[in-house]
Amino acid sequence: MNLTFLAPTFLWALLGIPLVILLHFVRTRKRRQDVSALFLWRRAFELARARRRFSPSWLLLAQLLFIALAALALAQPQLNFEGPPDRVLVVDASASMAARDSDGVRLEKAVRRAGELIARNGRVAVVRAGLDATVVQAPTGEAVEARRALEGLVAADRGADLVRALALARSIATGAEIHLFSDRPPPAGESVSYHPVAGDGMNLGISTFDVGIQQAYVAVVSTSPRPQEVVVEILHEDRLLSQATLLVPAGGQANATFPLGLETGIFEARLKPPDWDALGLDDVAFAGSEDLVVVLDIRSTPLVRALDAIPGVRWRVTSVADRVPADVRILTGVDPSELDRGRYLLFPEPSPEAQYKTVQDWDQSDPLLRFVDLREAVVGVDLAWNPAGEGWEILARTGDLTPVLLRLDSPDLEMIWAAFHPSQTDIVFRPAFPALMANILRAFRGEDRLPLGSPLPATADGRSPERAEVPGVYRVEGRGYTSSLLSAQESRLPPPASAIAPASGAGQGRAVARSRSAAPWLVLVALLVLVTEWLLWARSRGEPWLAFERGR
Question: If you ran DSSP here, which 8-state letter would residue 507 be given?
């Protein structure tokens, strides 16, 4: 059982106790009385002076007891017979929580305040609110485990899904108190105990970094109340390519375009922030992709021309293309059933028995066929060249429904199967062919940019992926992935919360909902004490206790 007060401010009324005692101590009444001899009063005065001026009485005790009971009743004491309440601590782990204010780092402030709720508590769970909500500590009664989970939190995610985190918190501990520690207020309609940690930090950061053909685009945002000049540099393999000084308006954004020359690969944008910059995660960003390595087992002029026209592609011809390391392999005459891992573009061998057909239908909404016009294209189809097995998706076909282009997509094996050899079709003379090759290689390349805070792709052996917690280039099985913050919302640090009070009943969990209020009983006892005090006072004055006794 524990005791809590819903309105502890009223406990200040207990200061009336010493006031009543003081009044009893100094209370003296002098009345004029005619006597026959003054020596009797002198003797009485000397005896009274030798005695104590103040002596407790039942009347004083009743008055003190009434003041104490009234103050406790106004404070609304709650008796909880179930023990300490369970709590779920939801901690915002978005990148803005890594900002440093004058009173400390926001995440550290959140962890410190959350740790104060662990002592004298029931079971405690910890939920990390990031790009996704995760339970970093299931409900436990061990304070050491809960503190260890809090201290292991890292703020880096591009955003925080607070709605999902609060829903997860309720699902793992029904009826528990929910406490949110964040620099942003809880979503509308959410009834939780909110602990704001936003401070006075100001920030300059890169919110956009995109790489195009021989140029890069950079946007910088600021939360400073004054215009700021900042130097932005573009680097490639630690070599400075270009730089510029941007004038960022007060609380605004500045943009610039930088030349890249003929360089390809991964580029780095870096700004030189002032000393007061509160967040370092957005001072650097990465964009671009590493060259895609392609090997061919034949030297086909149409294929070579298409590959040369695609930026970021390095190719070579080798007779052992199925065995040398490469990102993509272009093979001819290989049975698809013999392949179990990798990315392949498969063509048949040139066939003198090829039947020439016209393409009539293709999936124009598919990313592989975007900007690819196959209208009336003629292909020499080898009917004996047909992939075996299930899972193939037809992308294009002839008028008699003969497949021309198929795709197989599985976790470890990606294949594009063509029913024609490049030397036996007029597609290679159309703009559709380089566009098709570019789309295929782009699909094989996949997404090389990951939001900061997201997990890296899983490895082939199924190991749990790590998280990208700092901007940089991450490698998984030889493939490079860039990760940057690039979030104007996170770079524009939320200001301090003035006075955001939780909704009525917010955060009250199971123990509070089943507690009992002692205030009614205290009020009843206080009234009884008040009646008793009046009776004692009337008796001390020799007056009748009841009004009707005065008429006797």
Answer: T
Other CB atoms within a 10 A radius of the CB of residue 523 amount to 15
Q: How many CB atoms lie within 10 A of CB 134?
A: 14
**How many CB atoms neighbour CB 492 within 10 A?**
17
Alpha helices, H only, 38-161: 38-50, 58-74, 106-116, 143-151
Distance CA 375, CA 356 (A): 15
Angle at 75 between CA 71 and CA 78, to 5 degrees: 125
For residue 548, give every residue at least 6 positions away whose Cβ sits within 8 Å of its Cβ, in sequence order, or none.
none
State the Cα angle at 412 between 409 and 416, rounded to 5°.
35
Find the farthest-apart pair of alpha carbons in the chain and give their distance in angstroms, rounded. Answer: 154
Whether the CB-CB separation of 267 and 484 falls below 8 Å is answered with no
What residues form DSSP beta bridges with 208? 219
Show pLDDT as tens, one digit a residue, over the chain (552 residues): 566 666 677 677 777 777 767 766 665 445 555 666 666 666 666 666 555 455 566 666 777 777 777 777 777 776 665 667 789 999 999 999 999 999 999 999 999 999 988 876 678 999 999 999 999 999 998 889 999 999 999 999 999 999 999 999 999 988 889 999 999 999 988 889 999 999 999 999 999 999 887 899 999 999 999 999 999 999 998 999 999 999 999 999 999 999 998 888 899 999 999 999 999 999 999 998 888 899 999 889 999 999 998 888 999 999 888 888 888 999 999 888 888 888 999 999 998 889 999 999 999 889 899 889 999 999 999 887 777 567 899 999 998 989 999 999 887 889 999 999 999 999 999 999 999 999 999 888 877 889 999 998 877 666 656 889 999 999 887 778 899 999 999 999 998 865 344 433 344 444 334 456 767 776 777 778 777 766 766 666 665 544 444 444
- The packing angle between helices 58-74 and 519-540, to 10°, is 160
Strands 87-92 and 124-129: parallel
Separation between Cα atoms, residue 473 and residue 468, nearest integer Å: 9
The predicted model scores a pTM of: 0.65
Helix (H, G, I), strand (E, B) or coil at 27: coil
Q: Do residues 86 and 173 touch, judged by C-beta distance below 8 A?
A: yes
Token digits of residue 248: 């960022």
Q: Measure the CA–CA gap between 83 and 79, rounded to whole angstroms.
A: 10
Please give the Cα distance from 125 to 157 (Å, whole number): 21
